[in-house]
Amino acid sequence: MTLRLLFVCVALFTLIDAKCEDFQRDVDGCFCLTALEDNSKVRLAKQDEINKLKVCAIYYNINGNGWIQIKYANDENILLNKGDKVYFCAYDYKITLTNFKRDIDAYLHFVMESGKWEASGDLTTLICREGNITDLTRNNVDSWFAFNCLFLNCTNLVSAKNLRLTSTTLSNSCYCSMFEGCENLLDAPELNADKLEESCYRRMFYGCSKLNTVKVGRTSDNIYSDVFFSFWLKGATAGGIIICPAEVQNGFPKTEVPVGWCINGLDVSVSTAGFATAYIPFTAKLSDESVKVYYISMAGEKLTLSDANVIPAGTGVLLKGNAGNTVSARFIPSEDVVDVHENLLLGSAVEKVFNDEGYKFYRLTNGEKGIGFYWDVTEKTDGRSVKCNAGKAILRVPESTGVKSFFAFDTETTDLYEIYRDGIVTEPLVNMQGLRVGSEYRGIVISNGKKMLRK
Q1: CB under 8 Å to 365, separation ≥6 — which residues?
Q2: 213 contacts 239 by C-beta, under 8 angstroms
Q3: 42, 77 in Cβ contact below 8 A?
């Protein structure tokens, strides 16, 4: 197996494709890249426009099968299949940031040419054999711009959730632009440092357009300054959550909270009408039972409600409170995973127009026929499009199920039922005791406000 190391613009490097007997270390805990697809290619690239970078010994290990020293000469990738892992570790026991400290555009960084990748393990094994480096300040090591641009434009990196940033004391700009341009990154590592310096997180997740959750630890002085976070989430997805210690959330710099993002939880108000929609941009659950939360799905031509105990990121939901009272529902982060691919509610953290071909669109409205989902009559599109307000959800129904202009709620149950179709009222049947019955029921029933005998 060969490794391609690119010397950007000037030089190429080589590697000795032979196991190194004098380098002994267990792979457990080492910085690791895991291939999530077959034919995944990665290399460690050298950015050194003026041939200045002095590179210290770094080794790699595929699936625990022995360490190989990286030498600088040719441009071949490490090629892995799904499930394969490649570990990286520095040779020296002492800390050396020569490899990764950005200095006049001279540094090492990863290039992921194909496949999908997950980063995990202790990042600091790239600079010290034992890893677990907790102090990156300039008093301990020359570490300005320590891991700057480490995954720059790695569009094939999808997860760094299990990447451990062990350093609790950071230096100036040490994680600056670390994940910049990782537009498919879904999960970020926890930022648990308690001593920060200027620009340490600057542009860290710049352009990570699919990222929706970032967790930040407590600082030693309980102060978050915008100089730590400048542009750190610029270009991130519209809607997400920043998780930080509750006692300091009010002091988090608002200028660094992207549009549609919240801190530690999302509050949604349910009006006196008793119903509301919401778009939840992060994986969440309710913090209390003040309201009921539902998905909407379709069985045949009927719409039904299902309890939403856990809401996946980027999901629209329906909330049901007590009519006549305004209540607030708080959504908090959840680690659980659920699949709601049949949910017909779509939403957006920012104002958006939905107009997909082959669908009809409805917006929750307290209209002339009561609370329900209506076509957007203000736009007069006959349901072909609808404008969704920021933080809200709309109902999208396939045209193949039949054209309906209005769906209403049965407020006595959790069912949704059709009221108007082709101008004919099709309310549910109830018996003389007010209980809902099916079409097979025999006896006196009430339909459309009129009594009738079904034999």
Answers
A1: 371, 372, 373, 374
A2: no
A3: yes
Using alpha carbons, list the distances in angstroms from residue 381 to 72, 94, 95.
63, 68, 65
What whole-number distance in Å separates Cα of residue 57 and Cα of residue 70? 7
Q: Which are the contacts of 311, defined by CB distance < 8 A and separation ≥ 6?
A: 280, 283, 284, 285, 293, 317, 331, 334, 338, 340
For residue 145, what pLDDT band results from cuts at 50, 70 and 90? confident
* Contact by Cβ (8 Å): 203, 178: no
Transcribe 48-109 into DSSP letters.
ETTS---PPPEEEEETTS-EEE--SSBBPPEEE-TT-EEEEEES-SS---TTTS-SSSEEEE
**How far apart, in whole angstroms, are the C-alpha atoms of residue 283 and residue 68?**
40
How many other C-beta atoms lie within 10 A of the C-beta of residue 251? Answer: 13
- Residue 449, pLDDT score: 55
316, pLDDT greater than 90: yes
Give the mean model confidence (pLDDT) for residues 208-215.
93
What is the bridge-based pairing of β-strands 58-62 and 315-320?
Answer: unpaired
Residue 24's nearest CA partner among 93, 103, 104 is 93
Averaged pLDDT, 18-47: 85
φ, ψ at 320 (rounded to 5°): -125, 120
Please give the model's pTM, rounded to 2 decimal places: 0.77
The two three-digit tokens of residue 343, written as one number: 């949910």
Beta bridge partners of 57: none
Q: Can you say how many angstroms the Cα of residue 87 is from the centroid of all Cα atoms in its chain? A: 26
pLDDT at residue 423 tops 50: no
